[in-house]
Amino acid sequence: MLSPDNNSPSFVALPIGSTAIVYCENQFGEQDGKTANGLVRHSEKYEILSVIDSSRAGLDAGEFLDGTPSGIPILTGLPEAIAHAGRVPDYLICGVAPADGLLSAAQRVVLLEGIARGMHVINGLHEFLADDAEFSAAAELAGVTITDVRRPKPARDLHLFSGRIFDVTCPRIAVLGTDGAIGKRTTATLVVQALNAYGIRAVLVGTGQTTLIQGGKYGVALDALVPQFCSGEVEHQVVAAFEGEAPDVIVVEGQGALSHPAYLTSGHILRGSRPVAVIVQHAPKRTMLGDFPMMPMPTVASEIALIEAFADTTVIGVTINHERMEPDEIGVAITEHQSELGLPVTDPLTRPASELVDMVLRALPHLAKRPVPIAE
Fold it and tell me: What is the pLDDT of residues 255-283, one digit of tens each?
């Protein structure tokens, strides 16, 4: 049974509450756990009560990810997570995001158990569970909904590139990267938060399923669309954000990498949003692409050259993903990349948010002329 979020009929209403357990067995903190990772770091739509991952049970999810306790425990399984909540939570969110977008047999069992216990399921995979006979029957029996976040709208409701992007007068900044699952969404979110805290009205346009699950107001799961509509849907969401929010700047989440052999949606993001500026996210310790170990990682310099050759834009800075790096190595990587590239470089998770603001204002100084609101 589909939920109303899928623009399809449903005889079951979604709950008023927003409590959720995130299922991420054996993947929390890893590349294929990026949906769960993102929900622990930021969620506007759901109150995350716990994460299920027996391999990391007993730890605090925020402390495990970023060294800062979040109060969200990592637990062994669904029965323990429900017991911890004190009642059956409203939602079970599938927090795994494998490259093929499919569920394993063991993962199916857990999600079906959640349905049987009366939890609505939020699914961000390419595999649409509402179309699965076993899942749809289980949801019907339990009186719950399945929301397939990546399910695209009907083709008649999709948008081709129209040129309306030329009516968007505020600058767009795209956060691209050198690989998939490298932190582009996290950095884009932090850039938006930092700019808003400074007094510059910034709005995020998401392009992946995790941003939509987090509660992003503007966005589309770009990799689920027929390519013909990709740049047009990005354009449509940017225009909607511009008209709906009147922002000073729009930040667009990247996907994959322009150089990536499998994930090509960066091209549609560049064409559809036509950003004046790009921030590139890079993980210096990665030597091979995350899900494609037969392919070496590109250098930041080569990715910058490719982006600036492909689109009429300028890379204004680099953000470091510090995976597998010791604290002292982060500073070294920042210094080395600044020296090599002649651009501002920071780690958005370990360095002050002001460095992200400085990176933007160095490239777009006119934004600094706007008066900063005085807190009452």
Answer: 999 999 999 999 999 999 999 999 999 99
Distance CA 300, CA 292 (A): 18
- Average per-residue pLDDT for the chain: 94
Coil vs helix vs strand at 318: strand
Q: What is the largest CA-CA distance in the chain?
A: 61
Cα 117 to Cα 138: distance, rounded to the nearest angstrom: 10
Q: 3-state DSSP call for residue 228?
A: helix
Mean pLDDT computed over 171-195: 98
Q: Please report which confidence band the pLDDT of residue 6 belongs to, taking 50, 70 and 90 as the band edges.
A: low
- Burial track 180-211 (b if 16+ CB lie within 10 A, e otherwise): bbbbbbbbbbbbbbbbeebebbbbbbbbbbbb
Q: Give residue-wise pLDDT tens across range 303-321.
A: 999 999 999 999 999 999 9
Closest of 203, 175, 194 to residue 316, by C-alpha: 175
321's enclosing H/E stretch is none
Asked if residue 240 lies in contact with residue 218, where contact means CB atoms within 8 angstroms, the answer is: yes
Burial, 337: exposed, middle or buried (Cβ in 10 Å; 0-12, 13-18, 19+)?
Answer: buried
Neighbouring residues of 162: CB distance < 8 A, sequence distance ≥ 6 = 232, 235, 236
Spatial separation of the C-alpha atoms in residues 5 and 8, rounded to whole Å: 8
Question: What's the mean pLDDT in 9-20?
Answer: 78
Q: How far apart are CA 111 and CA 92, in angstroms?
A: 7
What is the model's pTM?
Answer: 0.94
pLDDT for residue 3: 54
How many whole angstroms separate alpha carbon 55 and alpha carbon 75? 9
Are 80 and 53 in contact by the 8 Å Cβ rule? The answer is no
Q: What is the pLDDT of residue 10?
A: 46
Q: Is the pLDDT of residue 149 over 70?
A: yes
**Helix 300-310 / helix 327-341 crossing angle, nearest 10 deg:** 50
Place of tokens 């209403």: 13
Judging by DSSP bridges, how do beta strands 202-205 and 120-123 pair with one another? unpaired
If we measure between CA atoms, which residue out of 41, 50, 69, 48 comes closest to residue 188? 41
